[in-house]
């Protein structure tokens, strides 16, 4: 695929390949730095871009990257909180290889593998994605009390 580049009045290299980029794709750190280098190489020598503009672009990208990392961390914490809230609860789950067959059991604990929460149901280690139904607290932990809570 051939690409053509031109320099706009602001000194930013514009590429026809960028126009054909898929919607929803993300700009990673390497791609951002390549774009910044291309911008520097293709700027108008008679009207160079101010250094503060480059610093501003780097700061904005760094801030965005940190917010993305923080969002991922919060999402992981939320998933862990959901898993912990299921301890003592009766759940129905499917085997990861056979999604049609389900088993039922009480969640005894939570394990974390590479940041992913898995539930210990009886002697089975069950991924959160394999939970198909949640029935409520088992009789041994709820002491026979009933609740009309709606989700």
Give a written overview of the molecule.
The structure is a single chain. The protein is α+β, with helices and mostly antiparallel strands. It folds into two domains: 73 residues, no CATH class; 64 residues, SH3 type barrels (Roll), CATH 2.30.30. It is 37% helix and 27% strand. It has four helices and seven strands; from the N terminus they run E-E-H-H-H-E-E-E-E-E-H. A five-stranded antiparallel sheet has the order 6-5-4-3-7. A two-stranded antiparallel ribbon has the order 1-2. The radius of gyration is 26 Å and the shape is rod-shaped. The protein starts with a strand and ends in a 9-residue tail after the last helix.
């Amino acid at each position: 695929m051939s690409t053509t580049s031109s320099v706009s009045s602001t000194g930013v290299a514009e590429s026809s390949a960028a126009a054909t980029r898929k919607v929803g794709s993300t700009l990673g750190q390497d791609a951002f730095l390549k774009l910044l280098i291309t911008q520097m190489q293709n700027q108008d020598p008679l009207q160079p871009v101010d250094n503060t503009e480059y610093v501003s672009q780097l700061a904005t990208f760094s801030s965005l990257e940190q917010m993305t990392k923080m969002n991922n961390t919060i999402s992981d914490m939320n998933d862990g909180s959901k898993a912990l809230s299921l301890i003592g609860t009766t759940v129905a789950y499917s085997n990861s290889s056979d999604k049609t067959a389900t088993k039922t059991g009480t969640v005894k604990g939570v394990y974390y593998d590479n940041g992913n929460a898995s539930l210990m149901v009886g002697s089975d280690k069950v991924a959160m994605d394999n939970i198909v139904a949640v029935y409520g607290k088992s009789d041994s932990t709820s002491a026979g009390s009933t609740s009309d809570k709606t989700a």
